[in-house]
Amino acid sequence: xxxxxxxxKQIGLGTIGLGFCxxxxxxxxxxxxxxxxxxxxxxxxxxxxxxxxPSPLARAAMTKSVNSSNRYNWKLWSELISLIAKKNNVSxxxxxxxxxxxxxxxxxxxxxxxxxxxFIIAGTTFDYWIAPSDKLGLKKITxxxxxxxxxxxxxxxxxxxxxxxxxYICNPNNPTGTICDRxxxxxxxxxxxxKTMVFVDEAYINFTTEQSLSSLVTENxxxxxxxxxxxxxxxxxxRIGYAIAHxxxxxxxxNLKSSTNMxxxxxxxxxxxxxxxxxxxxxxxxxxxxEAKKYTIDQLTQLNITCIPSYSNFIYFSLANxxxxxxxxxxxxxxLGTKIYEENGKWTRITIGTMKEMQQFIEAxx
Length: 366
Hints:
This protein is of the alpha/beta class. The protein has helices at residues 2-14, 56-65, 74-87, 100-112, 153-159, 182-192, 247-254, 266-275, 279-302, 326-332, 355-365; strands spanning 43-44, 95-98, 117-122, 138-143, 164-170, 197-201, 223-228, 241-245, 307-308, 314-318, 335-336, 340-342, 347-351.
């Protein structure tokens, strides 16, 4: 612990003198964290990225760690795993690192496909990672969302059969921003895991006040949770995520990799360790996201655009009542959004950027 504190002290102060960035100039508002748009690039409101990060401590850590990039990351990933385990109230052997949660998603898909069968997924959810499922011998069973765009846990439970190898739940859900009632979700997991594996994606849980399900994995051998540093911590480009599961599952997932935990670079691991210790930054990101989200939903509502209540850093809304060409309006104002996810109601999603970016977004629609 003392070694970690000393190391953090070094990375927090050591790079200030390099002239790379004046970290001591950051104050207590999120606007102080915003990185400059040096090339007049488009306003990126498509991939649910954090517009404020990485945090000052993470930037300093990444800069300093460049000098250690000639060495493998054995010491760092061990330290990072311990920090993650402590934060999630589990043991070190309940954690597996990945190059973003994408690698964890890929691994779990491979794990589920070891014995051919089917998997269950919501009709509108984060699903691009399932593209190889057919080639892996897994049949997809799609369960439509409820009318209020939530997971239909009752229908998903009924859909489980003897060939079901996995049920995937993104919570909060992407792209709808909805969240499962915790009591109902825990009840679902308790029942579903008697028959199959349940995989819960908590990429956006840090944008809520909800408690993670991580504490359940120590007793439940059929539950896997994935989390990421891409969103709240602003490390999407650094590619670092992790799985939380029973130690037996972690071992089996690790066996599907040629080098367990080695896909996370020294630079990324350093940034993650520093990020976990920059609570001021994460609090400001959370607060700013809530402020910009409320503003955007209020403004969209005034434009007669129906929005789904969001527990994330994005908003799901219907273009059914919008009379202009939405995507042309974005293009004309140099804004990158996403697509139509549901033709019935013309539902789309927008990432919550800075307050200034969301003001520009609303102006583009008017």
